[in-house]
Amino acid sequence: MSTTALSTAAWVAHDLGTAIGVGGALFGRVALELSVRNVRDQDQRGKLLTEAWRRFGVVQMGALAVMAATWYTGRAKLGGASVGGAGTRGLIVAKDILVGTTVASAVGSAVTGNLLAARRHRHADVVVDDSGEVAASAPPAARRLGRITDAFGLANLLAGAGVIAVTAVLAMQAGKSARWSAISRLLP
Q1: Most buried pick, 39, 116, 167, 170, via CB within 10 A?
Q2: How far apart, in whole angstroms, are the C-alpha atoms of residue 176 and residue 171?
């Protein structure tokens, strides 16, 4: 495989990983969690959400791992000056932070979500209201875990959207750079 083809494959993998991670988080927030209102039994709502997020979590973590691995691998080979000059350096650092935040917040959400699911399984006292949130009747510790999980999920969605935005700006700047065009032919 030529270096150009390998570089293109890495870029595609990066973009697909980002799309899967962000798209899944967006779907969960605006569709899945709100759709459980159609499930009458509060306990069943929780079980449905737990199972759906558990299944998708594996896919999301894999996709975000690919996103981060391709970014940081390519990043280790090049600095911002190669893409578009000194102004690009800030965008690259911003993307470093956003990629790290996207992965860290996904892990945080998975950990706290799994703790909440384990509590639901052990105590059966964690029910979900018709908005997809931990119900007010749940114990305070469960409600707190629900809020923390939700905060991680929102941070994940926002950081992932930031990755998409910065990636687009970097791609546009790279397209204007003759230097980057020449260097990118040599990348794996």
Answers
A1: 116
A2: 9
